[in-house]
From TrEMBL:
UniProt key word Signal: yes
Signal peptide: 1-21
Protein name per the record: Conserved domain protein
SUPFAM superfamilies linked: OMPA-like
Keywords for the protein's UniProt record, in alphabetical order: Signal
């Protein structure tokens, strides 16, 4: 039995050795697609947050298209919010176009670095039911928040905005077998954003916000886990 186990291990080693030379598939004309996960995302949730497509112009140079997305449902504790939150959503959508330069580290391992630019949209909306005590009774009404969500006091809180961004990044690709690979990526980005006009609607009244503002944000890209395939 022990000899059989030794033969199996030896065979596995020979198999990996024979396939490792063809495991790294980064050649001119190769197309790749991958999903990207953020293990340390919002509230430490492990969530899928983007798709990436890659095309190798040469054995070392690749163009990339990245589409990012995410949706979060709002929740309030009963003692923190003055109304009944019927519906609340925060969302994000981004489209980035970039360039990667690849460096062979080993037969199965590739290091790359690059730059990208893109556009970004942050969504925010909510629908809340409030009950007002009038002394001799109560009055219930609904408020629709557009391009914003309420604070725990019912005021305008987080707002929707649009932006443009540029980033630099570096990452690793480890080819498990032929075109299948695992990887990670980190980087930094600079983004210029502008808030959208807010709107509160209740009964027959509409209150539109008059203030919009711009902001410049510089931050690190959270480490991500990537699973991809080249063909």
């Amino acid at each position: 039995m022990k000899n059989v186990k030794c033969l199996l291990v030896a065979g596995l080693i020979l198999f990996v050795g024979n396939t490792s030379a063809e495991s790294r598939r980064q050649k001119v004309g190769i197309f790749g697609t991958e999903v990207q996960f953020t293990p340390f995302g919002h509230d430490d949730d492990y969530s899928l947050n983007s798709l990436k497509f890659r095309y190798f112009m040469t054995d070392k140079d690749a163009l990339r298209l990245k589409i990012g997305f995410g949706v979060e449902s709002l929740k309030y504790e009963d003692d923190e919010f003055g109304g009944n939150l019927e519906k609340g959503r925060l969302g994000d959508l981004s489209v980035d176009l970039g360039y990667e330069r690849h460096f062979k580290v080993a037969k199965r391992l590739s290091l790359y670095a690059g730059v990208q630019v893109g556009v970004y949209k942050h969504f925010a909306s909510a629908k809340v039911e409030y009950t007002e005590d009038l002394g001799n009774g109560s009055h219930t009404y609904q408020v629709v928040y557009k391009n914003c969500v309420p604070t725990s006091e019912g005021n305008v809180g987080e707002r929707a905005h649009v932006g443009v961004a540029a980033s630099v990044f570096t990452g690793l690709d480890f080819y498990v077998y032929k075109g299948l690979y695992l990887g990670t990526e980190v980087g930094i980005y600079v983004m210029s954003t502008k808030t959208n006009q807010t709107e509160l609607k209740y009964s027959d009244k509409v209150i539109k916000g008059t203030d919009t503002y711009r902001a410049v944000i510089c931050n690190a890209i959270k480490p991500m886990v990537r699973l991809g395939w080249t063909f």
